[in-house]
Amino acid sequence: MDDFLATVVGVAVDGLSTVSAASVSLVSAGVQRYGTAKAHPVGIKALDEAQYGGSGGPAVEAIERGVEVRVELPAEKWSHFSAVAEKAAVRSVWSLPLQVGGNTAGTLNLYSSDRSPWDPPTSEAARLLARQATVLLAHAAALAHSEQMNATLRRALETRTVIGQAQGVLMARQGTTPDEAFDVLRRASQRTNRKLRDVAAEIVAGVRQNPG
After folding, report:
1. Boundaries of domain holding 192
2. Is 51 within 8 Å of 82 (Cβ atoms)?
3. Most exposed of 34, 35, 124, 130 (fewest Cβ within 10 Å)?
4. Do 67 and 135 sit in the same domain of this protein?
5. If you average pLDDT over every residue of the chain, what do you get?
6. pLDDT of residue 93 exceeding 60
7. Integer CA distances (angstroms), 156 to 106, 149, 197, in order
8. How many domains would you assign to the chain?
9. Is 14's pLDDT higher than 80?
């Protein structure tokens, strides 16, 4: 994904004559709500970050509203962002939302040193790049969900296996039925306020250490 996003912002800068810089902002699950995944040139990341801390800007508005935001600078409502943009000789910004599964996952941000840089050919190409980035994010989200599901299934299988092994140990030692052995594990879990899997794993580990 990093390589593809790097290609997207690179194509935006190198292929669109009026675009002097580009970046991709993404919604973060951490303490910092927004973050820049890729920026070209790298220094333009400072313009993204000038918007994230609560001061606001076109990228944040595009994410929060789920709409395209075009603005000529300076913009009175974004004074801090405008000041940072002025130092970078940026006079126009266009943030295009990247929507995945009905939610805005981020934005493609296009920065220009021109006042009115968004002619129809540029606009069409920019929206195409945004669609490509959206497809990538959708695939990445689907892959992450699949990996999470697989990890959950693996843990469930491992838990079932170790509990079954512990039941076997108790059945052999105490002559209990499978249901009775499971009940012993359940009561031990409740009594010690530990997970059933941990109680079972301890029993199995004890057998391995003292097989006799």
Report:
1. 152-209
2. no
3. 124
4. yes
5. 85
6. yes
7. 33, 10, 10
8. 2
9. yes
